[in-house]
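Reopening this ticket.

The earlier resolution said the output was attached, but the attachment link was broken on my side. Pasting everything inline this time so it's all in one place.
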Amino acid sequence: MEENLDKNNEGNKEISHNNPKSNSEEIKGPKPEVAINMDIKNGESSSKVVMKNEINIPEKPITKPKKELPVEKKPFQEFIKIHLIPSLTEEINQRGLEINSISLNNTNRPIAGDKCWVINCEIKDTCNFWLSFEKDDISSLKSISLSKPNQKPSIIESFLIDEKRITLKLIISRVLQRLNGQKLLGVN
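Inline output:
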């Protein structure tokens, strides 16, 4: 058995002497993995040297591109003034109606009289509506009031109370649905 180990040591020395690469070249290149398999059968032993070349590439952290904040997560006034009012105006105009005025104010809610954020919209020769937000948060309690031109609203209704996720499209569609329900946007 000692003879086999001595032969293996001599073979290993020959392999290292026959290698013309310098130490710096060996460091730069991939390092081979050495596995020694020993078989023992009937009192005889033999060993095999198996060389495996595996390149270990350092893992780079994968950076995900930053997603832009959804418009619904933006500050309340930015959402209303930059996204909701222009989109709502465009939708109403596409239905052939003209908006005389639309604005956001922290004022008294129609009928109830409590102070909150109110979008007041006057649609020419059609109606006025007030979309009220209890707090400066689109998820806060909301209400809507409608009236014919030059009249005061007589009813205040809750708005989007059962919705868990409030989106820009949802607010617009429900305002239009409410106006259409009163036959203010044309024939049903």
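Reporter confirms the inline version is readable. Residues 59 and 113 are 62 Å apart (CA to CA). The mean pLDDT is 78.
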